[in-house]
Amino acid sequence: MSPLQHRSSVASSARDGTRLARELRRASYPPPYPDGWYRLLNSAQLRRGQLRYLECLGRALVIWRSEHSDDVFAMEAFCPHLGANLAHGKVRGSRVECPFHAWQLTGDGRVARVPYSDTPPQRSITESFPVEEVHGQILMYHRGGGTPQHAGENVPCPAPRVAEIDDGSFVYRGHNDAGRARVHMIELIENAADPAHFARLHNRMHVPWTRIPIPGVELEHFPRTDFDTDTEPWRLSLPIETMVKIRGRRITASRSRAVVTYTCAGGILNLRITTPGVGVVEIIQTQLPIGPLEQQVDFRWFAEPAIPRIVVWYIVGNWVSQWRNDVRIWQSKVFRDTPTLSRGDGPVMRLRRWYSQFYPESETAPGRDLSHRPGNDVLPTAID
Ligand code: FES
Ligand SMILES: [Fe+2]
Predict the structure, then answer these.
(1) Do 192 and 57 have their domain in common?
(2) Three-state SS for 20?
(3) Residue 192: which CATH number?
């Protein structure tokens, strides 16, 4: 090994842990793909007549948009005939055409046309998925449990929508591809039930979008952990109030309120920040599991039109900076089935019981049976 290779291997071990640490981490977590809505792509990434291949949620998918309408479809990528990758084919009208023998399939997985036969197979149905386009994002509902999904199936919870974006009270102000985070989805959820880390990880104001602290400017948080799941069982909301302190002095006029809302397993997180004298900013943060401990993270934000863009950019950049502090811890920790908790800790186990609804009965969920993690034994490794 050259000195350069050695240095880079030391740097990578420091960041990701040793092979042993990675194996311990993976074995400790619940199954990686809980049920729920996930963002696959931004709408702008899929033009009419375009198709794409995507690996996520333990699946290989082909996603395409109709040539003559905005309809989007997501389906298992491999052709039911002899297995070619449909993403190398073409969109024909609203169907996808295989590159191998030119069979055409509809978005609900049926064979619609075989060029050399008048009687296409009727019984073959390729697995397809419910898809919705919301606020400039293409969302898919993923369900575990082993039985194939179908694009037209009933979904237990609606895709999350923000009424103020729909009615034009909030306008689009930007998005950011935050890349990959080597974490399990549940860490994002448990964040809400763990107020004890706020004073340690989130007590400094940073230069927006960076982890560089601004000297003399601190943040004081007033989190609540009595999360509210009354209205819809699949949604959890948690308010947090924050005040700026400059050189130790509280600036009471700066007290802002953030409400974090998780929908289903946490693939889509809405953060609404209300700042007195400024207005309301809504951030949609999405996590798409690429592998057992690997999320593709994206931020997209909207705001009241009167708020200057630079102020919106600052508010969003501060949130992303604080999130990066969390990620730094999450990327090297294990999941404790039975954590040792102390007075002052939040309702971690109550939150895990809520979260277990997003695992089918066949899977081992946090807060259900914590003794065995069979799902992790058979999944592909994403962090080697
Ligand atoms: S493999 Fe797809 S048409 Fe033959
Ligand atoms: Fe946090």
Answers:
(1) no
(2) helix
(3) 3.30.530.20
Helix (H, G, I), strand (E, B) or coil at 353: helix
pTM: 0.89
Residue type, 376: N
Q: Whose C-alpha lies nearest to ligand 1, atom 4?
A: 101
How far apart CA 331 and CA 294 sit, in angstroms, is 9
Task: Identify the domain containing residue 43 by its residue range.
Answer: 36-142
Using most ligand atoms within 8 A of CB, pick from 103, 110, 117 the residue to mutate for ligand 1: 103
AA identity, residue 335: F
Domain match, 200 and 313 both: yes
Q: What is the rounded distance in angstroms from the CA atom of residue 281 to the CA atom of residue 173?
A: 9
Q: pLDDT tens digit string along 251-303? A: 988 889 999 999 988 899 999 999 999 999 999 999 999 999 999 999 999 99
Q: Is residue 155 lining ligand 1, measured as CB closer than 6 Å?
A: no
- CA 96 from chain centre, in angstroms, equals 27
Tell me which ligand sits closest to the C-alpha of residue 78. 1
Neighbours of 6 (CB within 10 A): 10
Looking from the CA of 46 toward its CB, the CA atoms found within 13 Å total: 27
Of 188, 264, 294, nearest in space to 35 by CA: 264
58: left (phi over 0), alpha (psi -120 to 50) or beta: left
68 located within any domain: yes
* Angstrom distances, CA of residue 10 to CA of 273, 299, 333, 362: 40, 31, 19, 40
Number of domains in the chain: 2
Q: Which candidate, 383, 361, 364, places its Cα nearest to that of 373?
A: 364
